[in-house]
Amino acid sequence: GFNGIARSTHQMTTQAIQLNLEPRVVLGKKVKKLRKAGIIPVHFYGPGVDDKALQCDQSTLIRALFQAGGTTPIIINVPDEITDQLVFAREIQWEPVRGNILHVDLLAVRTDQKVSAQVPISLTGDSPGAREAGGTVILQLREVSVEAMPLEIPNEIVVDLAQLTDPNGSIRAGDLELGGNVTLTTDIEEVIARIEVARAVEETMEAPDGGDAAEPGEEQDNSSA
Questions:
Q1: Are strands 39-45 and 101-108 parallel, antiparallel or unpaired?
Q2: pLDDT of res. 200
Q3: pTM for the full model?
Q4: Is pLDDT at 152 greater than 60 in this prediction?
Q5: How do residues 88-97 score in pLDDT, each as one tens digit?
Q6: CA–CA separation, 73 vs 115, rounded Å?
Q7: How far is it, in rounded angstroms, from Cα 107 to Cα 45?
Q8: Contact between 8 and 179 (Cβ < 8 Å)
Q9: 3 in helix, strand or coil?
């Protein structure tokens, strides 16, 4: 076990992401006119709440969605209807050609109940083991599943490669430091990152008719770090 390899950074939102929306009176096919005016239709739903048709200015909505990513809840307000309601953006429909947002679903969540979330993995630092072996670190698992209270879900988990000192070593999900209030639901044996070493030059030279032997360093293209 590589205890302490993964230094998770809980990039908690110090200032909650607030989003003000308006009730939507235009429904059905008429929402095309809304979109032309830069207004995006939003569907609000969830356990214990009434479904509502809402709308929001596109630039305001996009800014909130990018700030939140997939893991940070957003606090929404709708005049006379919804006050400080915690939501997650659950489905975002994009227009394929221009890349405009067509529709957003906002799922209501309670602050006192745990939720499941997929948290992205980010690598930082250099691995001494990779340097020693002349290899490269491969990010094998881009995100892990966790359970936590909505406001305690980290935006990302930053894994420090400095302590990956063994060329044959790997970082597994069970090595991640998530904090006391965050529970990992991904299998602890899942490999997050490992070192991949390009084949030796001698092997390349001996491969019959060129074969499929890789040139040194060629396999580094697999790295998504």
A1: parallel
A2: 56
A3: 0.62
A4: yes
A5: 888 888 888 8
A6: 11
A7: 5
A8: yes
A9: coil
